[in-house]
Amino acid sequence: MLCIRTYVRMCGQKTIASPGRGILAMDESNATCGKRLASIGLENTEANRQAYRTLLVTAPGLGQYISGAILFEETLYQSAVDGRKIVDILAEQGIVPGIKVDKGLVPLAGSNNESWCQGLDGLASREAAYYQQGARFAKWRTVVSIPNGPSELAVKEAAWGLARYAAISQDNGLVPIVEPEILLDGEHGIERTFEVAQKVWAETFYAMAENNVMFEGILLKPSMVTPGAEAKDRATPEQVAAYTLKLLHRRIPPSVPGIMFLSGGQSEVEATQNLNAMNQGPNPWHVSFSYARALQNTCLKTWGGQPDKVKAAQDALLLRAKANSLAQLGKYTS
Ligand code: 13P
Asked: Whose CA is nearest to atom 8 of ligand 1?
């Protein structure tokens, strides 16, 4: 059971879920960061990762649109190019530092080529150290694949892992972001995504209740309800919003403070338009963003590893951050 001290420490979720702000996901593992750097012709060295992450966190005024930044472990302990701690720069910007705590996906034996997420072993002690280092929230991402099932086994495993992680995080004073990503891959229509999402969230909340997770001290990071990436029939932002809000109303208690969507391979503009469509009326939760690619894609390309392009790249990041801030308020116009 949670003690009062833990609850008080966790009030950060209200800061993160504040009007006109959302999360910058910059928690690419070193391997994923390497792929992003390769796409602009850079080597995956610590210096290049540091230069890129410095560019992101020093974008002037970023905190106006961004309330939290999810970091990879390396970044939590990393300094910027000028020697200041990255967590200190975030604090100056009014941005709460968070930490990816899962250890990634591995094949799920006995399933239909599905995966499960590792990282529960030693989680409590790692989280206690992350808290000391300045982290105030955590993220655990597991995935569910529609073309591969999803099997009952994969959904139950995903839900149970998320619930154990959420309970351990709350015990260690970190607000858990609960992220069962339903991958976009596949030719299925939006109805099928809706059906799978209902099942996944039902299992996740059941498992969280069984593990005594305090719902008012969590944040969710769902996928939007869209057709599969290869589906012939595309959906408008209004359709995506209608299905996604129907899902949230059916499955998410109003005590949950914030719903911070992932972008999942949507284009930058699409992710903004869909979020904007969801904020055209009042919602019981803060409905916002926790994007990686949909905030960073143009920024990364603009930078291209060139020191004289840092300002232009930061402007590209701020442009997306501001657009999504307006979308959180339902006021984005393209
Ligand atoms: P994308 O917005 O690129 O899907 O990344 C979100 C995420 O889960 C990383 O934290």
From this structure: 262
Amino acid (one-letter) located at 313: A
Please indicate whether residue 221 is annotated as part of the active site. yes
Instruction: Say yes or no: CB of residue 262 within 6 Å of ligand 1.
Output: yes
Return the amino acid letter for 131.
Answer: Y
Residue 22's beta-bridge partner residues?
66
User: Percentage of the chain with pLDDT > 90?
Assistant: 95
The gap between the terminal CA atoms of the chain, to the nearest Å, is: 47
pLDDT for 287-324, tens place per residue?
999 999 999 999 999 999 999 999 999 999 999 999 99
pLDDT in tens, 20-51: 999 999 999 999 999 999 999 999 999 999 99
Q: What is the ipTM of this complex?
A: 0.93
CA distance 60 to 217: 30
Gap between the Cα atoms of 316 and 49, Å rounded? 18
For the chain, how are helix, strand and coil distributed in percent, rounded to 5? 50, 15, 35
Distance (Å, whole) CA 115 – CA 144: 8
Over residues 109-141, the pLDDT tens digits come to: 999 999 999 999 999 999 999 999 999 999 999
Beta bridge partners of 97: 69
State residue 13's pLDDT score.
Answer: 67
Tokens 């990634």 belong to residue: 104
Closest of 43, 92, 98, 95 to residue 72, by C-alpha: 98
Could you tell me the distance, in angstroms and rounded to a whole number, from the CA of residue 3 to the centre of ligand 1? 32
Q: Provide the 3-class DSSP secondary structure of residue 204.
A: helix
Could you tell me the maximum CA-CA distance found in the chain, to the nearest angstrom? 53
Residue 166, CB-side half-sphere exposure with 13 Å CA sphere: 30
Indicate the SS3 state at residue 203: helix
Find the radius of gyration of the CA atoms of the chain.
Answer: 19
